C-alpha cells in the first residue's frame, strides 16, 4: 500500500489503516454578486447587500465561504456575558443575518467540469458542523468530495469527526489531502479515524482516506491545487492553496520569498486579516494584510479569519475607499458569501 504524492507518485507506507484514493441557512445574496471574475472590471466592487433566501440554480463554478472567523468564533460567550463592558461586534453578531457572525475559517470550492459537479472543502474546523447545518441545505450542497487541509490546528481539523454524517448517510468515504506533518498530528488527535482497528464493530465513525501531499501541485477531482507554503507563527508551517487563478491563504504570519512567484496573476486573493490595528504572532493584522495586497497586486481581494474587533460594516466602508485612492478592490468576506468563479 502507498500514500499518493504529487503527480501520481506513490510512497510506500507500511500501515494497513491508510486507505488510498485513485485521484484523488437561508441566507444568500438577493442580487447578482458584483464581483464575478468574468463579469466586472477593476472598479466592480460594490457594497454587498444583506442576504435573502436563494433558489439554488448554480450553473458555474463558485466558492462559498463556509466560515470566516477565528478559532473562538464570533460572538464570544465571554463578551456576551460580560456585565461591565459591551462588545459592539459580538452584540451585532447575535442579530439574524449579521455579517459579524463568524465561525471557523473554511472555504467550499464548487467545481463544475465535464465529468460532474464536485464539492471540495478547504478545512473542517471544530465549528464545521454548525456551518454546514446553516449553509449546506440553503445552497443545495449534499456531498463532500474531498477535504484539503491547510494545517493541523483545531479550527482546521476539529470537525473531521463530524464527517461521519456524510460517510454514514450520504457517501461511503471522504478523501483527505494533508501534509505529512499534519497527518502525524491527526494520528494523535484523531487516532480512531486514522487507525480504525480498535473501533468497536458497528460504531459510527468517519470513514476517511488520507492522502499525503507535498509542497508541489496535486489534483483533486481534475482540479489542480498548488500549495502556497507560509508561516503561521515562528517555525510553524501552514499551507495556502492556489486553484485556477484564486489564491487562498487563511492562516499566515509571514510569506516566504519563494511563495510570492506562485501568487503572480492572481484574480482573487483570499487572505488572513485578524484584527484592525496590528498583526499577532500567528496572523496578519489588517495593516500587514494591506501591505501584502499592494505587493501581490491581485485583481481583487477578500479578507478572512477576522476576530471580534473587526466590524464588518465599518471595515468594509474603510476598505472601499482604497478603490478610489489606490485602485485596490478589497472587502471583508462573511459566512455564507458565494462568489461565481471560472476554474
The chain-level structural class is: alpha/beta
3D shape? globular
**Biggest sheet descriptor:** 7 strands, mixed
Average pLDDT confidence is 86
Give the count of helical stretches: 9
How many β strands by DSSP? 16
Write the layout of secondary structure elements.
Layout: E1 2-4, E2 10-12, E3 62-67, H1 77-80, H2 88-93, E4 106-113, E5 116-122, H3 128-138, E6 146-148, H4 154-157, H5 164-169, E7 174-179, H6 180-189, H7 191-194, E8 208-213, E9 218-220, E10 223-231, E11 237-243, E12 246-249, E13 268-272, H8 286-296, E14 300-304, H9 312-325, E15 330-332, E16 338-340
What features would you highlight for this structure?
alpha/beta; seven-stranded mixed sheet; 20% helix; disordered N terminus; Metallo-hydrolase/oxidoreductase superfamily protein; Metallo-B-lactamas; RibonucZ/Hydroxyglut_hydro
Describe the structure.
Residues 103-306 form the Metallo-beta-lactamase domain. This is Metallo-hydrolase/oxidoreductase superfamily protein. Pfam families: Lactamase_B_2 (PF12706). The chain is 20% helix and 24% strand. Residues 1-58 have low confidence and may be disordered. The strands form three sheets. It has a seven-stranded mixed beta sheet with strand order 8-7-6-5-4-3-16. A seven-stranded mixed beta sheet has the order 9-10-11-12-13-14-15. The chain has a two-stranded antiparallel sheet with strand order 1-2. The chain has helices spanning 77-80, 88-93, 128-138, 154-157, 164-169, 180-189, 191-194, 286-296, 312-325, and strands at residues 2-4, 10-12, 62-67, 106-113, 116-122, 146-148, 174-179, 208-213, 218-220, 223-231, 237-243, 246-249, 268-272, 300-304, 330-332, 338-340. The chain is built from nine helices and 16 strands. With 343 residues, it is α/β, with parallel strands linked by helices.
